[in-house]
Amino acid sequence: MECRSQQIQLNPNNKQATLMSQHAGYARVAYNFGLSSFKQGLEADEWRTYVDIKREFNAVKYDKFDWCKELSQNASKNALHNLGDAVTRWKKGQNSFPVYKKRSDRISYQADNGTGTVEVYKKRINLPKIGWVRMREQLRYKGTISKVVVSKRNNRWFVSVLIDCDISNFKHQPPLFDDKQPLGVDVGINTLATCSNGDTYDNPRPLKRYERKLARANRSLSRKVYLSKNWHKAKAVLSGVHYRIGCIREDAHHQASIRIVRKASAIGIETLHISGLLKNRKLAKALSDSALSGFLTLLKYKADRRGIPITEADQFFASSKTCSRCGEKKKDLTLSDRTYHCSECGLDIDRDFNAAINLCPA
Fold first, then answer.
1. pLDDT at 111
2. Residue 339 and residue 342: Cα distance in Å, rounded?
3. d(CA 222, CA 225)
4. Pick from 290, 312, 288, 300: which is nearest to 260 by CA?
5. Per the domain annotation, does 174 fall within a domain?
6. 20: CB partners within 8 A, 6+ apart
7. pLDDT at 172 over 80
8. Are 100 and 141 in contact (CB under 8 A)?
């Protein structure tokens, strides 16, 4: 048994959307209350556990927050449990000390932690105190629901469902293509991925496409009175542009990665030092727009799920400068040279295709 997660967009009515916002606010209030209590305990040289904080919150919540009586108590319980996990990680040195949640932070709450209070039937999900909410698609996995998180992003509501399922059959599925073969994958800015079998996948470069629209939205927001109604409207417009850019980039990564793993029996990729590449001010924006590291991470994840071995080349392996036919290394190759010409064997080949062949596992 392993866990698989899926995020699905919800289609709630106005009443359901209001209730989900209230539950997210309730979770934020409980989290902040618990964090204040924990800090007070530290000042008094007292270590307050999750159980202590939960007991304290339950004793006063109906007096201090009487509006929470109509809401699901799973929201506050899971928020305090998440605070306990954050404190535990802080104690182990895994992350910094927890901070208070603001209204402007990500709007979300955990509706279920495996207690069976959430049901899913086809394209509907039954959330506590909210009822059956329509979903845009069905769950892809079958199993036991262990965690449900409801979140809001760019005025759209999403539900993330974590499922304990048997994935033993996933890695033994029959191949979707008969010509599965080892593939080398070279990533770049102009072309997202070039494979050793000749396939190429375009890079949409969404930030470059929406740069002018993004600048106008930023200027419009800067001219509004802070926290006024028009400021919130302008902020929503700006958020929508960022959301659109992210969706285009994510869709391109998913489309390319799934097509590669469906055709590959083994994959060879390069090792990128992104922080070093970003120091080049002429390429930094284009590299950030392409998100190459995220694409390679997604490719490795999907390959691992299907049992496809991944070979990562050495960080200093000159895949683009090495001739794929004779192995001669061309030291004077520059980024502007898009065609590789070997002076030893006379090979003329696209530089990205040449790099992909060199990365192809034996």
1. 92
2. 10
3. 8
4. 300
5. no
6. 12, 109, 127, 130, 150, 152, 157
7. no
8. no
For residue 339, the model assigns a pLDDT of 83
- Asked if 54 and 80 sit in the same domain, the reply is yes
- Work out the mean pLDDT of the chain and round it to a whole number: 90
| Residue 173 lies inside a defined structural domain of this protein | no
Single pTM value for the model: 0.82
For the segment 134-140, the average pLDDT, to the nearest whole number, is: 94
Boundaries of domain holding 67: 2-165
Residues linked to residue 350 through DSSP beta bridges, in sequence order: 339
Please tell me whether residues 11 and 144 are part of one structural domain: yes
Q: Which long-range contacts (C-beta less than 8 Å, at least 24 apart) are formed by 277-284?
A: 283/189
Rg (the chain; Cα; Å): 25
Residue-level pLDDT at 331: 78
The predicted-structure confidence for 74-117, as pLDDT tens digits, reads as follows 999 999 999 999 999 999 999 999 999 998 888 999 998 878 88
Output the CA torsion 229→235→241→242 (10° steps). Answer: -150
pLDDT tens string 200-221: 999 999 999 999 999 999 999 9
- What sign results for the dihedral spanned by CA atoms 303, 305, 306, 309? positive
Domains of the chain: total = 2
